[in-house]
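**User:** My hope is that you can spare some time for a protein that puzzles me. I have put the entry right below:
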Amino acid sequence: MNPGAFTGAVLLACCTLAAAQVPTVKPARGDDLRALHANSSDIAEGRRVAESSCARCHGAGGISTTKGTPNIAGQRAAYLYLQVRAYQQRGRSQNPMESAVRFLRDDALVKVAAYYASLDPARPAAATAKPVPGSGDPVESGKAAAAGCAGCHGEAGVSSMPGTPSLAGLDPKSFVEAMNAYKSGQRRHDIMKTFAAGLSETGLNNVALFYALQKPARSQTPAAGEQAAGKKAAVSCGGCHGDVGVSASPGTPSLAGQDAQYLATATQAYKDGTRKHDTMKALAEALDERAIKDIAAFYSAQQPRQPDVRRPLSLSGWTERCDRCHGANGNSIEPLIPALAAQRADWLERVLDAYRKGERKSSAMSAMSAQLSDADVRALAAHYSRQAARPVVYVLVPGK
């Protein structure tokens, strides 16, 4: 599009949604932003200012070729205006931006915003045969990776083999720590070490998530000890593992409903040092073989409880949430909400991380991004970078 031939309306109408999307800034004229009409000479002036102040970082015509610098061609004018105002008033901090816009007058900001809004947006990032990172279902991935565990631990992680622990309903953190202990040799078991070594960090987390979401069940394998005696002997265990074996700490495993023979074998391993854990070793050394079996019998008879772990959203679930504000496929139709379509993926990752860390302030975005994993951030950024960006047209109509 030829900016010099563009004539249109730049809407800078303030609305209640603005506070959730951009830093609070006081508009140049009054408390409310108002609609302004940008004609072709305004657009041309905006281009001149943009080329001297913005193009070095944001690229010719607002298409960035610099890592970590956003495309701004075709972005919503009101959003651009408010962002630049925030940099001027130190509502957002970034030295290069502060220096570039510090001395621009308000009318120049309006014209620059109008100029960039008038341009054709960036083209979407090229799609490749490689899937969007993190776009798969982690639970299904975990289930597939755990297929080799079913022979010993049961199809859904509930073991019927004496001496083999149930995995269903284990807290993911506890599961991951145990698997890493096998991988490092802190726990000794050749088969488990081989399996753990074959999993990436993501794969291990997916397996942990799969088992955490399975319904736990009390062990039906035989227990050699006395439950009543075990309850008395287990008093010292309750501080970490809970009075009835249901742990309140993600890093401490729950023992309720677990296979008794496995519990006894694990306790003996802590006692003789073949499992490494200073606290457990100190407690286990005070127990004789009878007490170990009694404690195991007590805990195996208790009802297990599933941890408070929710199935994470898939990429499609996340994009559905994002699109509610940012428009279909990231094409915002709200003047104050940025378009995401065809934006640089590295910039989107940077922004989401800033919201997650609290470096950018927005109650809505902070609440949303706090739930995102690193994989979610990469997947969302890649997704929106591959969407076709659409220009938006604002139509002014007579008032009633």
